[in-house]
UniProtKB/TrEMBL annotation:
<dbReference type="InterPro" id="IPR000627">
    <property type="entry name" value="Intradiol_dOase_C"/>
</dbReference>
<feature type="region of interest" description="Disordered">
    <location>
        <begin position="51"/>
        <end position="71"/>
    </location>
</feature>
<keyword id="KW-0223">Dioxygenase</keyword>
<feature type="compositionally biased region" description="Low complexity">
    <location>
        <begin position="55"/>
        <end position="71"/>
    </location>
</feature>
<dbReference type="Pfam" id="PF00775">
    <property type="entry name" value="Dioxygenase_C"/>
</dbReference>
<dbReference type="GO" id="GO:0016702">
    <property type="term" value="F:oxidoreductase activity, acting on single donors with incorporation of molecular oxygen, incorporation of two atoms of oxygen"/>
</dbReference>
<feature type="domain" description="Intradiol ring-cleavage dioxygenases">
    <location>
        <begin position="115"/>
        <end position="192"/>
    </location>
</feature>
<protein>
    <submittedName>
        <fullName>Intradiol ring-cleavage dioxygenase</fullName>
    </submittedName>
</protein>
<dbReference type="InterPro" id="IPR015889">
    <property type="entry name" value="Intradiol_dOase_core"/>
</dbReference>
<dbReference type="GO" id="GO:0008199">
    <property type="term" value="F:ferric iron binding"/>
</dbReference>
<keyword id="KW-0560">Oxidoreductase</keyword>
């Protein structure tokens, strides 16, 4: 474990980068209750006449379709923002800095050191949609703030050696399709956490740059095979060892279910990757 993170891992391997899992437990409980309720609605009726059976079967099929539709369009799971959000909730607030609204987040901006995060190129596109509409309505005019660690597993503004940098953080307003796109680098894997990107959704760009009225906070996960390919390249040495002891199924955040948060990722280590995710809110 590197010197930056050795003092931030709790018992059980959960990394201090993402403390706050206790706050997520009520959310997990609600998800499990929803699954149980959905299952209960599909219990077959006993002692029906032939006509009743047909009606019951039709109703059950309809209920199953509705449940399936609801599951496919469930709101993105709420997750902890971790201790390094940079949104003013834990010290520094980058959201009020001029220049934070940008698509290329690889470089520091404003009065900071001006460094550039190195690594395999990554383009991230998030599509924010209205869950209540069945995920069919884009959320135009919303805003998304994303942040993640660099290839060494360090967070700008917080980690030793990069406190004077603010790269790998940025905000964008969603377009007519509900989309935002950021140019970044593939994040490293630090001890205790599966590779991920944090993001917050706001009702408007004004809300985001005022750091107020967050509507959703979640995390994006990456497929294992892509991570392994990226981490075989220069600069990701520590990530190889850290990833080998982790899995999505045992990660402290994604272990309760990651289907809605696993990005569709394409590309190559040589040319870079694209990661896309639909974010129902």
């Amino acid at each position: 474990m590197d010197r930056h993170h050795a003092d931030e891992v709790h018992d059980g391997g959960v990394h201090e980068h993402d403390r706050g899992l206790s706050y997520d437990l009520p959310v997990l409980a609600r998800r499990r209750m929803i699954r149980l309720m959905a299952g209960a609605s599909l219990v077959p009726l006993v002692g029906c006449t032939s006509q009743d059976e047909t009606s019951a079967s039709s109703s059950a099929s309809s209920a199953k379709g509705s449940a399936s539709s609801a599951a496919e369009c469930a709101t993105i799971p709420d997750e902890t923002a971790g201790p390094f959000p940079g949104d003013g909730s834990n010290g520094v607030n980058v959201l009020k800095e001029s220049g934070v609204v940008r698509s290329d987040i690889t470089k520091s901006f404003g009065d900071f050191a001006g460094g550039t995060a190195e690594g395999v190129p990554l383009t991230v596109t998030l599509t924010v949609v209205d869950a209540a509409s069945g995920c069919g309505t884009p959320k135009k005019g919303a805003a998304v703030y994303i942040w993640h660690c660099d290839r060494a597993g360090d967070y700008s503004l917080y980690s030793e050696g990069v406190t004077d940098e603010n790269y790998l953080r940025g905000v964008q307003e969603t377009d007519d399709k509900g989309q935002v796109t950021f140019r970044s680098i593939f994040p490293g894997c630090y001890a205790g956490r599966w590779p991920h990107i944090h993001f917050e959704v706001y009702g408007s760009l004004a809300d985001a740059t005022a750091a107020t009225s967050i509507t959703n906070t979640s995390q994006l996960a990456f497929p294992k095979d892509v991570c392994e390919t990226v981490y075989a390249t220069d600069g990701y040495d520590e990530s190889v060892r850290n990833l080998s002891s982790l899995s999505l199924e045992t990660d402290g955040i994604f272990s309760d279910g990651y289907e809605q948060q696993l990005a569709a990722t394409k590309g190559s280590a040589a040319e870079g990757y694209t990661a896309t995710l639909t974010v129902p809110v």
